[in-house]
From TrEMBL:
<dbReference type="Pfam" id="PF00814">
    <property type="entry name" value="TsaD"/>
</dbReference>
<feature type="binding site">
    <location>
        <position position="183"/>
    </location>
    <ligand>
        <name>substrate</name>
    </ligand>
</feature>
<comment type="function">
    <text>Required for the formation of a threonylcarbamoyl group on adenosine at position 37 (t(6)A37) in tRNAs that read codons beginning with adenine. Is involved in the transfer of the threonylcarbamoyl moiety of threonylcarbamoyl-AMP (TC-AMP) to the N6 group of A37, together with TsaE and TsaB. TsaD likely plays a direct catalytic role in this reaction.</text>
</comment>
<keyword id="KW-0808">Transferase</keyword>
<keyword id="KW-0819">tRNA processing</keyword>
<feature type="binding site">
    <location>
        <position position="114"/>
    </location>
    <ligand>
        <name>Fe cation</name>
    </ligand>
</feature>
<keyword id="KW-0963">Cytoplasm</keyword>
<dbReference type="GO" id="GO:0061711">
    <property type="term" value="F:tRNA N(6)-L-threonylcarbamoyladenine synthase activity"/>
</dbReference>
<dbReference type="InterPro" id="IPR000905">
    <property type="entry name" value="Gcp-like_dom"/>
</dbReference>
<keyword id="KW-0408">Iron</keyword>
<feature type="binding site">
    <location>
        <position position="309"/>
    </location>
    <ligand>
        <name>Fe cation</name>
    </ligand>
</feature>
<dbReference type="InterPro" id="IPR017861">
    <property type="entry name" value="KAE1/TsaD"/>
</dbReference>
<feature type="binding site">
    <location>
        <begin position="137"/>
        <end position="141"/>
    </location>
    <ligand>
        <name>substrate</name>
    </ligand>
</feature>
<dbReference type="InterPro" id="IPR022450">
    <property type="entry name" value="TsaD"/>
</dbReference>
<keyword id="KW-0012">Acyltransferase</keyword>
<feature type="binding site">
    <location>
        <position position="286"/>
    </location>
    <ligand>
        <name>substrate</name>
    </ligand>
</feature>
<dbReference type="GO" id="GO:0002949">
    <property type="term" value="P:tRNA threonylcarbamoyladenosine modification"/>
</dbReference>
Amino acid sequence: MKILAIESSCDETAAAIIEDGRKIISNVVASSAAMHEKTGGIIPEMAARQQVVSIIPVINETIKNLSLSRDIDALAVTVGPGLIGSLLVGVETAKALALLTGKKIVPVNHVLAHLYANFLEEDKNYIKPQFPALGLVVSGGHTELFIMEKINNLKWIGGTIDDAAGEAFDKCARILGLSFPGGPAIAAEAAKYAKSEIRNPKSEIKLPRPIIGDDSFNFSFSGLKTAVLREVNKLKETEQFNQITIVQLAYELQEAITDCLVAKTVRAAEKYKVKSILLGGGVAANKRLTEKFKSEFRIHVPPPSLCTDNATYIAAFAYYNYHPVDWKKVSAQPSLEVEV
């Protein structure tokens, strides 16, 4: 079964064709990252306008020599959560294709779908996740934990009560004067900490690990952002805010966020006696995060290109959760719940 999927929940414009929920036939992403880097963040209206320009060329490139009517069995599209303007671009395009071809559409929750990148068989070394599994979705707008009893049965057990991890990276990067997106920028600065000239025990900076020790499986990163701002203001007052302290702050911020993510996830894995931990979302591409997980537990992490927004996992989710509907019943849902 071949599914053509469309993803446009935020700033990327993506389409992909996946066969039987595992094999990638094609995968095309039009990124507008360079445009958003200039503005220091995503401006929703600008993202949606760019997606209007990109959506048809992306789909044409995805289909290539295939026939939409003969070779594609179903359509899938992200209906939420996300930016309303961006979602509308993908949803209305999928509805037009469904009307044109008579195909049914599988509406997809973008956040849940992130975990299904782990079922795409990228190479011969692919190891299939075992159930029950624990899924951590960690992205710009979401930090959520799910128990996956089987491949099409997800239960939410915890998530962020304020800022998501990716949001904290972005906001703190802005405070430190680093580029957008914040996650890669923070990681690049933190990597410099290993150099001997950067290490200075007399001026080590320590940040809190919010609610890391409580009994819930929730996360909180808003206070961490405030702590970074407080440290920066203190350093500026004493004229110590410089490249060295920026690197120290970036390193400690990355350590704090990844410590919280790993501690809560491993605790949940032990409580629910899972056989696999699955990561998904853009922050899952953070090398320090995966290093810490690998020292604690066996994990499954998609390649970095499948962690960030794309349509491959939208199609995979649609295959394993195949509930097609008529195009008239499909609508954009920017506030779609993730607490299933």
